[in-house]
Predict the structure of Sarcosine oxidase subunit beta.
Amino acid sequence: MRRYSAFAIAREALRHHTGWGRAWAAPEPKKHYDVVIVGAGGHGLATAYYLGKNHGLTNVAIIEKGWLGGGNTGRNTTIIRSNYLQDASAAIYEKARGLYETMSQDLNYNVMFSPRGVMMLAQTEHEKRGYLRTAHANALQGVATEFITPERVKQIAPIINLDGPRYPVLGALWQPRGGTARHDAVAWGYARACSDMGMDIIQTCEVTAVTREGGKVTGVDTTKGHIGCTKLGIVVAGHSGQLAEMAGFRLPIEAVALQAYVSEPIKPALDCVIMANTVHGYLSQSDKGEMVIGGGADNHNNFTQRGSFSHIEETTRALVETFPMLSRLKMLRQWGGIVDMTGDRSPILSKTPVDGIFINCGWGTGGFKAIPGSGWGFAELMATGHSPLTAEFGLERFREGRFIDESVAAGVAH
Ligand code: FAD
Ligand code: PYC
């Protein structure tokens, strides 16, 4: 792989940019791999990357039915934070947040990590008590958050109206090193690094069946033929239920559309991320100047990857009391992604009833922030059979009633 650098940009500028190579190869599938990952979203690609980097496993294929990063990874609103309540969650999300800090250097790819700070507004007494509790838990977990006063909120985000008649701002849970990153770049950076390690990323190749023999995985049938493997990682977000069915087991997962939209670009007005979870809305401002806005998940199961007028109306109405300037903006475009929801709003990173098959799903509305930590832990689980990062997130927790309830920290209404 040719390294990207200031020197390389200068050199290419002098020769009309004719020397850039492909960022990743487009190979035909081989007959057999040590590991096949289904799904070239952030979690699938990060898993492959850490399988190679941390465990020396490079005979790996990542199979994607569309284009890499074209699922939720390329559709999210890019918020990164680790202010979760339970220890197991804080550990994996903080691991991920830490890896984001150095991801551009690690991958030699600018993922535009911007630790601009994330605040979750407290707009009811109940919410305030909840965030105070989270701030205390985070202090014990080594996650840097604090509960801040309304005055400090206003100082950080002057566009806010603290004194709404229904939901005045009572303070906020503030994570100064939370922020955003460019979502496509995260997928592209991992893809380039995986390809450089000799892994095969096979796009426009849909997995249609999972083959097994004597309770053990043997491979997958795809639209490009049968591909054999010793280990299989299923990392397909909203399609996890279908893949599990192909493999012969069931998952406690529902598929729901989550939508977002952006406004016309305006001059810089907001330099942090704000989530207003009581009213179901959140916003940040992109580098292009658009207000990036989202609300709650659709309240019915579906597989549509698009937005709806009712969602714009509902979310904008919820936000204008606290951000009156939004009422003056034109909205530009909207979209949706299919998210994979568990009952406790925590992910599943687990072995499965089929020998050799591992599942990584259930990130629901909040998995972008987790991509590097999830990839790190899931790769360790697949390579060695155990990872301290994923140990609490096994499928057996649903049978044993050991839920990891993160419905408040998830931040997005379900
Ligand atoms: P995906 O990126 O969806 O990748 C799964 C891939 O599997 C897809 O590319 C799909 O095509 C492929 N696939 C499916 N079936 C098959 C098959 N049969 N064969 C081959 N390939 C298959 N999270 C945050 O942390 N912060 C946010 O601000 C945030 N905002 C969001 C906003 C929206 C509107 C949405 C929709 C999600 C948001 N999320 C956010 C959640 C986050 O985007 C997801 O949790 C995360 O991207 C999931 O990544 P993934 O790799 O698991 O899934
Ligand atoms: O998990 O922070 C999050 C999030 C924000 C918007 C959607 N998910």
